[in-house]
Structures are given as structure tokens and as C-alpha cells.
Design a protein that fits this description.
The chain has about 290 residues and is mainly alpha-helical. The protein has 13 helices and 8 strands. The strands form 3 sheets. The protein has a 3-stranded antiparallel beta sheet with strand order 1-3-2, with helices on one face. It has a 3-stranded antiparallel beta sheet with strand order 4-6-5. A hairpin with an 8-residue loop joins β7 and β8. α1 (about 5-15) crosses α5, α8 (about 145-160) crosses α12 and α10 (about 205-215) runs antiparallel to α11 (about 230-240).
Length: about 290
């Protein structure tokens, strides 16, 4: 059992939950405050959050106080075993994703098309050949299929957050050629300004994009975030500045890379967890189940 939180810590956590993270956390992307940790976990507190936060260097009593304050806040969304902090208390930040693969690695470089060679539909740019990259990694790293998939998803997640990769098309009926590199010699393509503007607004509207779409996504195995509603949500929130019709795919891949899907393997698509989705209390029979950090 974990220790009972002291009253002073409960008060401090309650104050914390009453402020936006922009007021309590450093603007630096590598901030190590507890508030920033929770924001980069999707403002969601779940079964393993306590252990993860303590492993990241946060005080156990402060974590327990934050959990208690979240439970007592009427604006907290209780979804199965998960608590999703309200927007007034926490703004979801793009996660910090670290991969053992970098875009500068030789396996990636040989798997990227030349910016001067048109693709099948005449598109110019540097596109990632996923099949070749996987083959190269099998040859050079000796990873299992599950490890390879994990690191590949982390590479995509981190690169989509940074904007170094894009999965972009303004046409929902046209699937992008592949993941497109956006820096250096790969940048001078006609629609790069649209890609950059769309990415900037994805980051800007990351919190409401996820929260507004969550009621459309059930927390079930294989569930996708790419709902019919998401494109309209993105268009309305950004007033058309998110021109990428495949923004849902980018959010999903960021979430996969961050571990916001549970049980993902080379053969298992995994199960999304809050804040990406909602748990139906009637079906899960969890409406009266108390949250107990493990």
C-alpha cells in the first residue's frame, strides 16, 4: 500500500490542478516537473502512472496527492481505471518519444528516395520506404519483430512530433505516397509550406483534437483514432489551417510511439487508452470501481 498523502500536499496538488500547465511547468520541452510529466502522458492517470512517475524521479507523496486531487475534482473525467484531468487543470502536450533509430542512421538514409526522382504519381520529395527500412534493420540490428516494430513506431512518433516527418495529403481520397522527410534537401517541394502550417497547428491544437474526438473512439482492441468526425473537428478547430486530411493518422502514430496504445506487438494492433478514447461504464461494469494506483 502507498502512504497516505499529507494534507499540505493535497492542498498543493489541488492548487496545481486549478492552474494550466503553462503556469506551472517550464516551457522547455524537457521539463521534468510532475505537471509536465502528466501533460505528456495525455493528462491521464491510469493503473501504472504512479510507478512511471516515481521511476521518472517524482516524489511518491506528490504523485499520490495529485491522484487524490484529481479524483476529488468534479471536472475530472473518470473512464474505467483512468482519470483524465480537465482542460482547466491540464493541457495535453505532445509526448516526448525516444527511439533507438534516428533519421540520420544509415539504415534510414538508404531507405529514403531521392528528392530529384519523381514518385509514381509525379510527386517530388524524400519518401521513406518502410519495407526496405525494416529489412535493413533486421540485417543490421538483429532485433526481434516486436522490438523492431516498437522502435519503428517510436521513430515515427518522435519524427511526427518534431515535424521532421509528415504523412500529408490535402485530399482524403488520396493516400500519401509514404512518410515524407521535411528537412534539408528534402524540403524544397511545392506543398512544403502547407505541410509546415498544418503541422504547427496540429501541435497547437493537440489537446482539443484528442479530447473532442475521444467520445467517438471506444477503448477496445484495434480501435482507430481516424474517425469520420476527426477531419471536421480538425478543420473547425484550426479554421482550415490543418489542411492535412490524414492528421488522424499522424495523431495515431504519435500515440503508438508514445505507448498510449497498450499491448502493441508486431501482430497485435493494441488497445488505445484514455485520453484517446472512452470506456463505456455499462459494458465495462466499472462505473462504481474506485481508482487504485498499483
Amino acid at each position: 500500500m502507498h502512504r497516505r498523502a499529507r494534507p499540505g500536499l493535497l492542498i498543493a496538488a489541488s492548487v496545481l490542478l486549478g492552474l494550466t500547465l503553462s503556469n506551472v511547468a517550464s516551457a522547455s520541452s524537457d521539463s521534468t516537473t510532475l505537471a509536465d510529466f502528466v501533460a505528456r502522458q495525455g493528462c491521464a492517470i491510469g493503473p501504472n502512472t504512479r510507478q512511471q512517475a516515481i521511476a521518472a524521479g517524482h516524489d511518491a507523496n506528490a504523485v499520490d496527492a495529485l491522484i487524490a486531487a484529481a479524483r476529488d475534482n468534479q471536472q475530472t473525467v473518470k473512464s474505467g481505471d483512468w482519470l483524465v484531468l480537465a482542460p482547466a487543470s491540464c493541457q495535453i502536450k505532445p509526448p516526448v518519444v525516444t527511439s533507438a533509430i534516428k533519421l540520420s542512421d544509415p539504415e534510414v538514409r538508404v531507405s529514403v528516395s531521392s528528392p530529384t526522382v519523381p514518385q509514381a504519381e509525379g510527386e517530388l520529395g524524400c519518401f521513406l520506404d518502410t519495407s526496405r527500412l525494416h529489412a535493413e534493420l533486421r540485417r543490421t540490428r538483429g532485433w526481434s519483430e516486436d522490438r523492431l516494430m516498437q522502435e519503428y513506431l517510436r521513430l515515427l512518433g518522435s519524427s511526427l512530433v518534431s515535424g521532421d516527418l509528415a504523412f500529408y495529403s490535402s485530399n482524403p481520397l488520396h493516400t500519401p505516397t509514404a512518410f515524407q522527410l521535411t528537412r534539408g534537401e528534402c524540403a524544397p517541394v511545392p506543398h512544403m509550406a502547407d505541410i509546415e502550417r498544418s503541422h504547427a497547428n496540429l501541435i497547437k491544437w493537440f489537446d482539443p483534437l484528442i479530447r473532442t474526438n475521444a467520445p467517438n473512439v471506444a477503448c477496445t482492441r484495434g480501435a482507430t483514432l481516424i474517425t469520420p468526425e476527426l477531419h471536421d473537428i480538425a478543420r473547425k478547430l484550426s479554421e482550415g489551417s490543418i489542411s492535412n486530411a490524414w492528421v488522424g493518422m499522424e495523431i495515431k502514430l504519435i500515440a503508438l510511439g508514445a505507448g498510449w496504445y497498450e499491448g502493441v506487438t508486431a501482430t497485435n494492433p493494441g488497445t488505445p487508452r484514455p485520453p484517446l478514447c472512452h470506456v463505456d461504464p455499462a459494458k465495462a461494469n466499472l462505473q462504481d470501481k474506485p481508482y487504485k494506483p498499483r
